[in-house]
Amino acid sequence: MAIKLDEVEAKQGFRYEVEGGVAVITFDLPDSAVNTLSPETGEAFTALMRHAEGDTAVKAVVFISGKKDNFVAGAKIDFLQTLRSAEEATAISRNGQQGFEQLDAFPKPVVAAIHGSCLGGGLEWALACDYRIATDSPKTTLGLPEVQLGLIPGAGGTQRLPALIGAQQALDLILTGKNVKPAKAKKLGLVDEVVPVPLLRSLALQRAGELAAGTLKVTRAHGQGLKAVASSGKAKGLAGFLKGLASKDLWTEVALEDNPLGRKVLFDQARKQLLKKTRGKYPAPEKALQVIRAGLESGRAAGLEAEAKAFGELVVSDVSRRLVEIFFATTALKKENGTANPSVKAREVKKVGVLGGGLMGGGIAYVSSALQGVHVREKDKDDAGAGRALKQVQSVLDERVKRRSLTSREAVAKMAMVTAGTDYSGFKTADLVIEAVFEDLKLKHRIIAEVEAVTREDCIFASNTSSLPISELAKGSKRPAQVIGMHYFSPVHKMPLLEIITHPGTAEWVTATCVEVGRKQGKTVIVVNDGPGFYTSRILAPYMNEAAYLLADGADITALDKALVEFGFPVGPITLLDEVGIDVAHKVGPIMEGAFGKRMAAPKALDGVVADGRLGRKTQKGFYLYENGKKKDVDPTVYALLPHGKDRKPMERAEMAERCALQMVNEAIRCLGENILRSPRDGDVGAIFGLGFPPFLGGPFRYADSLGPAQLLRKLEHYQDKFGERFTPAPFLIEQVRAGKSFHGG
User: Are 301 and 101 in contact (CB under 8 A)?
Assistant: First the structure.
């Protein structure tokens, strides 16, 4: 029986029905692909719960989503962006806490029926219910990802989650922001039951009725979540409970959490590990740690108050603003087709051909088969190369099985979608061919001709080149409109960015198709215009060059790497050089210098290192020592190959970091001024997701705006006077300063 709703409840997308004494509240926010939370949503839900409480015919409540693959995705992020003070944001947090406290104390059983993403405020909502059922669908994920936006859970999540699954497990979820799948959620005690999708609604109704009748009770074993115990099976329930008490891990957690000394050990260790990762640049995880500790040591009320205050401070912090801007940027990119014409449709890609069986080729084969879900035919020059490509795909699948994000059966099915050989058999039906061969223009021209001779007229040819202009590659094609760049980053299965490069003659449908392929491969996709080095390789070159100049000036390798890590990069430039391959960087250098002149000239400091056969991690011989593939200390013998030898000079870390970072920022501004980039937004996303530019700084253009274009110009002019033309300010920066404009408007 459906109940007629008030206007505000209907406007928020709620539906209220009573079936067999159970009120079913369905949430389906109008004009939105997902359910999100706002103050209006909370008010409407509270009104419905009051109605259910006063209705004597209602014995229990089921809360369920009307969306296809979404429970509740969390709070409306754009609403949080409207908050202008910490006090205002703290008040919002308190309101959310109060609403979920009322739900927690509701006198009738409440069951959350979860299918699809249950994240942030959505999970906090579910945590306030008495019983949680989740579907076994791969679409169902649960988590508190707020730290990824520079925030913490603000509606009681920092208090309810530790109470439900124990502090150690809660810290792992809250401090990392990672999501868990249904099976892991059940193991943690985050949900009580996992069921097939078609049974979700009926079983939720059944469990609600059983809870109301007292035939199903929930008991809490510390750190083990809720356990459902049928009243007719008390002995079994008691045995299960005692078995749980016998768990060594459980007692370890109890010992740590339930006495002051144990808690101190737990939280001190957690903070130590946290700072090792964040280096104090991201305040949200530290705040979360403090808030969870406050609740455990001083009680729930104190914990909730600490949560509200910390949430308020973080919402208006610069770090959160930058991270939220990145979130909006990537969200907007998902809705675009990469062309100026939104009506252009992508064509279906059912089969991908991959040329080259190295790490890149194998990685591309993996994301195409396992994530995009299409058949892949890989070609290499010999059987050994083809075998390496297959081994690369298999190794990633094995890793996923080991992490339990994939079953063995699923891995076998995905592996069966990849075949390899030494000729072009199987390429006739390919819709897209991606080459990842040696960076040589003549070689690539030869391959284009070979591919076009064996593929259909509508087949797209994409190059994974990181430096050669796509327009030059297209000159070797009979179908230049179907030639495009698809620049992946290594390792392909881990790096999130795909940089798509179009030359002036690239057909729009080709661009749209490749953008869609990238999205299905799980990539954040930016589209840039053609030019030597495109965007990411081009802005990386002066950054790496400056690191080499610092080495030539006598900088210590460890100190230089630490300087850039302290600035916010995930690894230092010399570590990165070892990872990319010293020989690769050495070959790209002349290409960039040939295109852009002396300002892009690399110092000769590395010539001796290359001549010594040091290629980096891949040969276990670079600037660093390696043991079983793991990086160790700097190889002291490498200094003999550098200017100044072992006599390294002490340098200010802040200046070393600034010299490298400003080179990247300045070159990014050049790319925008020369229309390589289509927008500052794309430049920020590309640098963060492709090169590890510090996310808390928002990307090169947000960083330039935070410094102020005029101040950035002064810094560059200072270094230009000191070091010469490689620091010459970008013409577009000078234009912005003269016009009094920032890069993101204003």
Answer: no
Q: What angle do CA 669, 671, 676 make, to 5 degrees?
A: 145
CA 24-29-31 angle, to 5 degrees, is 145
Residues 721, 716: Cα–Cα separation, whole Å? 9
What is the pLDDT at residue 368? 95
Compute the distance between CA of residue 243 and CA of residue 17 in angstroms, rounded to an integer.
41
Question: Could you give the CA distance from residue 28 to residue 65 in angstroms, rounded to a whole number?
Answer: 6
Can you tell me which residue has the tokens 């930058």?
Answer: 322
Alpha carbon distance 188, 178 (integer Å): 14
499 among known catalytic residues: yes
Residues 6+ apart with CB under 8 A from 345: 337, 509, 512
pLDDT recorded at residue 238? 40
Rounded Cα–Cα distance for residues 372 and 516 (Å)? 10
Helix axes 260-278, 167-176, angle to 10 degrees: 20
Residue given tokens 């979860």 in the structure block: 114
Q: Which residues of the chain have pLDDT under 70?
A: 1-10, 219-263, 746
CB-CB contact of 329 with 322 (8 Å): no
Instruction: Give the model's pLDDT for residue 3.
Output: 61
Residue 156 tokens, joined: 């009681």
Question: Which CATH number is 216's domain given?
Answer: 3.90.226.10
> Does a cis peptide bond (omega within 30 degrees of 0) precede residue 491?
yes
Residue 532 φ/ψ, nearest 5 degrees: -55, 125
| Element containing residue 71 per DSSP (H, E) | strand 70-72
The pLDDT assigned to 1 comes to 56
**Confidence (pLDDT) at 579:** 86
Alpha-carbon 211 to chain mean position: 39
Q: Is residue 675 a part of any domain in this protein?
A: yes
Write the CA distances from 644 to 448, 578, 652, integer angstroms.
Answer: 47, 21, 18
Q: Which residue has the tokens 């692909």?
A: 33
Given CA atoms 247, 248, 249, 255 in this order, what sign does their dihedral have? positive
Q: What is the rounded (10 degree) CA torsion for 95, 98, 102, 103?
A: 70
> Which residue among 452, 499, 546, 667 is the active-site one?
499
542 and 526 assigned to the same domain: no
User: What is the distance between the alpha carbons of residues 199 and 448, in angstroms, rounded to a whole number?
Assistant: 52
Instruction: Find the distance separating the first CA and the last CA of the chain, reported in whole Å.
Output: 55
In this predicted structure, what is the pLDDT of residue 4?
61
Tally of domains in the chain: 3
Full domain range(s) for residue 48: 2-316
As given in the structure block, the two tokens for residue 452 are 């076009």
Q: Answer yes or no: is 330 within a domain.
A: no
Average of per-residue pLDDT values in the chain: 90
Residue 210 CA to residue 723 CA, distance in Å, equals 77
pLDDT of amino acid 613 = 87
